[in-house]
Design brief:
The chain has 455 residues and is an alpha+beta fold. It contains 16 helices and 13 strands. The strands form four sheets. Strands 2-3-9-6-4 form a five-stranded mixed beta sheet. α4 (80-89) runs antiparallel to α8 (167-185) and α6 (117-133) crosses α7 (142-159). The longest helix is centred in the middle third of the chain and has 32 residues, at 247-278. The mean pLDDT is 90. The structure holds protoporphyrin IX containing FE. Protoporphyrin IX containing FE (HEM) is lined by residues 93-94, 105, 256-257, 260-261, 264-265, 268, 323-324, 328, 392-394, 398, 400-402, 405-406.
C-alpha cells in the first residue's frame, strides 16, 4: 500500500491575514463568530496566522472528536483563557492542567455523578417555584428571572442558602466580569487592576462584591445536616494520600461552580424561552407533555426523564444558541499525526485549535435547514448526526462537569414555567446573539407571560 502523503499547517487552506493578523484580532473582538464564520468556506481544516500564532479551525466533527478524545493528552487550554479566568476562579478545576487538574476533577466528580442528581432536584424545584412566585402575568424581563432562579439553585446546592436580594447585584457582577474577561482575552496581557484606567474601577468593584459575597457564605456556620456541597468539599479526602482541600482550594472550587453553574444555564433557558414564545406549536406540545406527565403537582427528577419533547426543545435551543458558543481554544503541547481524508494530517506542537460549537451546530451538511428551530432533531429515532457536530457541553475529558446537573435543572425549571404560563413574544423582536464568553441576546429579552389555561 502506498504511504499516505502528509498535510502540514503550511499546506492547509486559509486566507492570508493583513497587518500580522492585528486586523483579524480587532474584527474578532468586535464580532468573534462572524470573523470565524469567514474561515468556514475554505474547508474543514483551515489555517490562520495571528502574530506568531499558527491557528487551525476544525469544522469536521469526526476529526474534532478524534482530536479531543484520542489526543486529549496533547491538548491544553489556550493560555490566555485560564490567565483571564484565574482572576476570578483562582486555581480551580476550570483553570488548571495536567496532574493538578486530574486530581481536582477526580475529587469533584462524585458530586456531579448522575446518581447524585435526584438529591439536587428538590433544590431546583424549590428555587424555580420561588422565582416564579415573584412574577406577575404580563411583560417579564426573562434574563433577570432566569438569573435569579439559577443563582438560587446553585446557592441552595452549594451552601444551603437562598439568593434573596443579592441575586441581582451578583448576576450583574458576574456578567460584567464576563464582558471584561472577553475583552481581555484579545489583549496579549492583562494590565494590573490598580491602574487608573477606564473600566478598572468597575471591575475591581465587581470582583470585590463577588469575593465578599462568597466569603460570607463560606464563613457561615456549617449546616447541621451537612447535605450542602460545601460540606461535601470540606469532607473530601484524596483517595491516595488522604489529603483535604485547603480553604483557598475550597473557595476557588465554590467560586467556579457558582460562576460556571448559573450564567450558562440561565442563558440556555433565556434562548429556549424566546424559541418557545416564537414557536407556539412547539410550546403547546411541550406544555401538553408536562400536563400529561406531571399535571399540576411539582416535578421530580424521574419526571424529567419522562419528558422527551421538553428535553428535545432545550437541546435544540442549545444547538441554535449554545451558551458556550466558542472559545474552547486549545494548544497542542506536542505534535500529533492522524489520518484524515487519505492523508496524514500533521499538526506541530504549539499550534492552536479553535473549536466553535456555534458554527458546527449550523453546518447544513448535518442539520437540514440549520436556522430552523426543530426539536424533532433530538427526539428518539431522529436521523443520527456525527457526534462531534453537537457539543454544547464540550467533549473529551474536559467535558462540562455540570452537564447532567444543567440538563436536569433546565428541564425542571422549564416544566414549572410551562405549568403556570404561556410564553408570548409580546413586543420582542428576534434577539441578536452577542458573544461575551457566553452567547446572550443583545439588549435582554422581555416576553409576555399569560396564565396558562388548563387544557
Ligand atoms: C447549560 C448550561 C451549561 C453549559 C452550556 C456548560 C458548558 C460548558 C462547557 C462547554 C465546558 C467545557 C469548556 C472547554 O472545554 O473548554 C464546561 C466546563 C465546565 N462546566 Fe459547564 N456548562 C453548563 C452548566 C454547568 C453547571 C450547572 C456547572 C456546575 C454546577 C458547570 C460546571 C463546569 C465546570 C466545573 C467545568 C470545567 C470542567 C473541567 O475543565 O474539567 N457547568 N461547561
Amino acid at each position: 500500500m502506498a504511504a499516505m502523503t502528509s498535510l502540514t499547517w503550511n499546506d492547509l487552506p486559509g486566507a492570508a491575514t493583513r497587518a500580522w493578523g492585528l486586523t483579524t484580532l480587532r474584527e474578532m473582538a468586535r464580532d468573534y463568530l462572524a470573523t470565524l464564520a469567514r474561515q468556514q468556506p475554505y474547508g474543514d481544516v483551515v489555517r490562520q496566522r495571528i502574530l506568531r500564532e499558527r491557528i487551525v479551525d476544525v469544522f469536521d466533527p469526526e476529526l474534532l472528536r478524534r482530536l479531543m478524545l484520542e489526543h486529549a493528552d496533547a491538548l491544553i487550554r489556550w493560555e490566555r483563557g485560564p490567565e483571564v479566568f484565574s482572576q476570578t476562579l483562582g486555581q480551580s478545576v476550570l483553570v488548571t492542567e495536567g496532574p493538578v487538574w486530574h486530581r481536582q476533577r477526580r475529587l469533584l466528580m462524585p458530586a456531579f455523578a448522575h446518581k447524585r442528581m435526584a438529591g439536587y432536584a428538590a433544590f431546583m424545584v424549590d428555587a424555580g417555584s420561588a422565582g416564579l412566585d415573584r412574577i406577575q402575568p404580563g411583560p417579564v424581563e426573562m434574563s433577570g428571572l432566569f438569573s435569579h432562579i439559577t443563582m438560587d439553585v446553585i446557592l441552595r446546592v452549594l451552601f444551603g442558602t437562598q439568593a434573596g436580594d443579592q441575586a441581582a447585584p451578583m448576576a450583574a457582577a458576574t456578567q460584567h466580569l464576563s464582558e471584561v474577561g472577553f475583552r481581555e482575552m484579545f489583549w496579549p496581557m492583562t494590565l494590573p487592576d490598580w491602574l487608573p484606567l477606564p473600566g478598572k474601577a468597575k471591575k475591581r468593584r465587581s470582583l470585590r462584591s463577588l469575593f465578599g459575597f462568597l466569603q460570607q457564605q463560606l464563613d457561615a456556620p456549617p449546616r447541621p445536616d451537612g447535605a450542602d456541597l460545601l460540606s461535601g468539599l470540606r469532607a473530601l479526602r484524596d483517595e491516595h494520600d488522604g489529603a483535604v482541600l485547603s480553604e483557598q482550594a475550597v473557595f476557588d472550587e465554590c467560586m467556579t461552580i457558582f460562576q460556571a453553574g448559573h450564567e450558562t444555564t440561565a442563558t440556555a433557558l433565556l434562548w429556549w424561552s424566546w424559541l418557545m414564545a416564537s414557536h407556539p406549536e412547539a410550546q403547546a406540545r411541550a406544555a401538553a407533555e408536562v400536563a400529561a406527565v406531571i399535571g399540576r403537582r411539582l416535578p421530580t427528577a424521574d419526571d424529567a426523564a419522562a419528558l422527551p419533547w421538553l428535553s428535545a426543545s432545550l437541546k435544540e435551543a442549545m444547538r441554535l444558541y449554545p451558551p458556550a458558543a466558542a472559545l474552547m481554544t486549545r494548544r497542542l503541547s506536542r505534535g500529533v499525526t492522524l489520518p484524515w481524508q487519505g492523508r496524514q494530517l500533521q499538526l506541530d506542537a504549539g499550534v492552536m485549535l479553535r473549536v466553535t460549537p456555534y458554527l458546527l451546530h449550523r453546518d447544513p451538511r448535518w442539520w437540514t435547514e440549520p436556522e430552523a428551530y426543530r426539536p424533532e432533531r433530538f427526539m428518539p429515532g431522529a436521523p443520527e448526526v456525527p457526534r462531534g457536530a453537537y457539543l454544547p457541553f464540550g467533549q473529551g475529558p474536559r467535558v462540562c462537569l455540570g452537564q447532567h446537573f444543567a440538563m436536569l435543572e433546565m428541564t425542571l425549571v422549564a416544566a414549572l414555567l410551562l405549568q403556570r404560563f404561556e410564553l408570548q413574544p409580546g413586543n420582542a423582536a428576534a434577539p441578536k446573539p452577542r458573544l461575551a464568553v457566553t452567547l446572550r441576546p443583545e439588549g435582554g429579552l422581555t416576553l409576555a407571560l399569560q396564565p396558562r389555561r388548563p387544557a
